[in-house]
What does this fold into?
Amino acid sequence: MSQLPTLRQLQFIIALAEHGSFSRAAEAVFVTQPTLSAAIKELEAILGTVLVERGARGAVLTPAGEAVLERARRVMTEAEDLVIAAQAAGEPLSGPFKLGVIPTIAPFLLPRVLPALRERFPDIELFLREDLTDRLFDALRERRIDAALIALPYDAPMIETHAVWADEFLFAAPPDHALARKKTLAPSDLSEEPLLLLEDGHCLRDHALAACATGSARSDFAATSLHTLVHMVKSGLGATLLPRMAVDAGLVDRMGLEVRPFDPPVVGREIGVAWRKGSARSDEAIQLGDAIRDILQTAPSGGS
Amino acid sequence: MSQLPTLRQLQFIIALAEHGSFSRAAEAVFVTQPTLSAAIKELEAILGTVLVERGARGAVLTPAGEAVLERARRVMTEAEDLVIAAQAAGEPLSGPFKLGVIPTIAPFLLPRVLPALRERFPDIELFLREDLTDRLFDALRERRIDAALIALPYDAPMIETHAVWADEFLFAAPPDHALARKKTLAPSDLSEEPLLLLEDGHCLRDHALAACATGSARSDFAATSLHTLVHMVKSGLGATLLPRMAVDAGLVDRMGLEVRPFDPPVVGREIGVAWRKGSARSDEAIQLGDAIRDILQTAPSGGS
DNA sequence: CATGGGTATAGATATTACCTATGACTTCTC
DNA sequence: GAGAAGTCATAGGTAATATCTATACCCATG
It folds into this structure.
C-alpha cells in the first residue's frame, strides 16, 4: 500500500487553500513558512501529484489539489469527531453540550428538568438554544448544536431521533364555548371548529391539525407563541389545542379558560431527542433524553 | 482545540483490535511491541480515555475503544481514498482499474472497444468482472470494483450513474412467426405475445418487459445467456427482444432469425457507467464512459 | 513455582519536524 | 527600469519524537 499522508499535512493544505499563500497559511497554523513549504512538498511527493501552483502572488490549488482539499476536509472533521466521540464515551454528558429546544417545549419543560439534570450530570455545561424545528435541524447538520428536543413525527434527512415522552393535546376554549360543556372530546368534535393555532413554522400547528384529521385552522389569525395564543383564545377568537406539558406548567392558570382532555385513545405528539446522523454525541443525546423522561416521571408537574 | 491523534495511531489501534494482542498487532504493522504499546498509550492520553483493557491473555477494547475503532476505520478509509483520488486526478485512468460489466453487454461491447481504450489510455490496466447488476452494485459498495457498466434506469442507494449510450431493442423471432411479416413493429404489437427472456436477475429481462408495457414473459422457459436465448428462439420456443449492440456484434448471424426494429420512438435501454457515491475514481468512471461513447460513435459496428 | 504468554519500562538511536538564515524570483512602485 | 516588498525554495542546525533492543513485570496454568 502506498504511504499515507499525515493529518498534519492535510491540515496544512487546508490552511494553504484557505489563505492562498504559504506564508499566511503558515502563520495560521503556527509554523514557519519553510516548514509548511516542506510539508506541502512532501505531501505532493506522497500523492505523486502537484497540488499547488506556486506563483509570485501566492499559491493556487490545481484541480487535483481541489479534489484533495475536499477530501482532506472530510478526513479532518472525521478525525475531530473521533476525538469528541472518544471523550464523550469516556465521560458521557460532561463538558459543553449545546441543546436546541423548540419554543412550544422550552419554557415549560426546562424549568422543570434543568435542576435535576444538573444534579444528575454535574459536569455538564448545557447551552440552550430555542428555535423552530427546521432551524434546529439545520443547526444539527452544521454541527452548531449537539442535540435537539423536538416533536415527532418529523422526518428530515441526516437526522436521527429517539422518542422521549408522549405529550397529550388538550382542548382549550372560552367558558361560553359550545364544546366546553362536554367533559371529554373526540377528535371528530373538532370537524366544524376552525382552530386558532400558532403561525406557520411551528410544528405544533401541523401536529395539532394532524391530530384532528378533519379539522381546519383559522386562516385569518395565528399566534406567535403559546402565551399569546391563550390570550387570543381568552378574547373569544376561537378554540385551540394545547400540549399538556404547557398546561401543567401553568400556561392557563387564572386565565378563566376551559380545558378538556380527549377520550382515549388520546391524541398528542411525541417529544423526542434528535441528532445528526453519525454525530459523535448521539449516545449522549439518547442518555439525555432518557434522563429527561426519568425526571418527568419521578417529579410530577407542579401545575395547578 | 484539543490535540488530534495521528493516522499512525489510528492504524495501530485498528490492528490492535483486529489481533487482540499488542505483540501480534505490532507484528502486523511492522513495528515492535513496545512501539505499539507506547503509541496506544499516547493515543489514550490524547483522547483522555482508556481504550484498551490490558489482560494477561491479550488486550480487549473498552466500549470507548469500540467507538473509537469504528470511527478510526472510517478516517483511515477516507484517507486512503484521498490518496487514490489524488493519484487519479494527477494521472487519470492509469494504473489498475477494476470495471464490472453486465453479461448482456460484456461479450458484445468489450471486443469492440477494448483495443481503442488501450490505445487511448495506454497506462491503464483494466480488470474486468462480468456479473449481474445487483452483484456489481454490491461490489461497488464494498470497493471491490471501481466502476461498472450497467443498464439504466436502475436505482440503488449509494450508487451514482452517468449515461453513456442508448441501446435500442430489436424484435427477434423465427422466420415463420406471425410478426415477422411486418417491416417494423410497435411496442403494442407484443401485447399478445409472451416473450422468451433471460432468467430472473438479468436487468435485460426487466427492461424488455418495461419496453412493451403490456407485454408478458413466458413463465415456463428462461435463458441463462443471450446466446442460449437466440438458440431457444430459433427452435421455435418464442420471440424475444435483443439489444441492438448484441445483434450488431453478430449474435444472430447465420442463425436464420428475423430481426425487426421498432417504429420511432424506438424502445430500448440506456447503458451507463456507475460508481459508489463518493468514490475516489468517479471522475475516471465518467471519463471512461465518455471514451466508450466516443469509440462506439467513431468506429461503427462490424456486424452484418 | 516455574514457565510461557502477555504488557510496560528504560535507555540508546535514528528519524523527522521544525526553526533561522538566506537565496532566487515576481510584481509593484516611483 | 531600479529598488522595494512581496512571494516561495533551499540549506544547515537543533529539538522533538518515533522506534528499537533489552529487560522487568504480571498473571494464568500446568
